[in-house]
Amino acid sequence: MSVEATIGIANSALTAQSQRITLIAQNLANADSINSPEGGPYQRRIAIFEPQQVGDNSNAGIGVKVAAVMKDSAPPNEVFDPSNPFADANGAVKEPNVNPVFERVDMMQATRSYQANLSVIQSAHTSAMKTLDLLK
Using alpha carbons only, what angle is made at residue 93 by residues 89 and 95, rounded to the nearest 5 degrees? Predict the structure, then answer.
């Protein structure tokens, strides 16, 4: 596999993980949003990845891309607070299905994946530069 294909694959992963990190940040920012524009509490967003061909046919590799952003189908959390203006007839308030601890762990995983792919790009660049030095 060529250096260009290696960098292309790692670059596709950087882009995908960057989008994933953005979604996680949105989830954390809206962890307390009980009233969203769609109505009801905020629903957690999840990035769905799919394989993507990177490069031309002679130098192709398989990278990754965000195919879709899905809303988590988990039901909202319900908290008893009859004094809240968003409470239903039973006094329950529906809160987002965002678990901040889970989101932080997911953020750590996405960040480490981002760092690993950045390291691949740096290693490929260093390797290409050393090859060019040998040809001098």
Answer: 155
> How far is CA 121 from each of CA 91, 105, 110, 112, 127, rounded to the nearest angstrom?
54, 25, 17, 14, 10
| Structure-token match 């294909």, residue found | 5
Mean pLDDT score across all residues of the chain: 89
With contact defined as beta carbons under 8 Å apart, do 96 and 76 qualify? yes
Residue type, 60: A
- Which whole-number Å values give the CA distances from 47 to 38, 73, 77, in the listed order? 19, 13, 22
Give the pLDDT confidence of 35-74 residue by residue, as tens digits: 888 888 999 999 999 998 887 766 677 889 999 999 998 9
Q: How confident is the model at residue 5 (pLDDT cuts 50, 70, 90)?
A: confident
Q: Do you know the residue count of the chain?
A: 136
Alpha carbon distance 41, 8 (integer Å) = 39
Q: Are 95 and 35 in contact (CB under 8 A)?
A: no
**Tokens standing for residue 97:** 């299905």
Cβ-contact 33, 112 below 8 angstroms: no
| Beta carbons of 53 and 63 less than 8 angstroms apart | yes
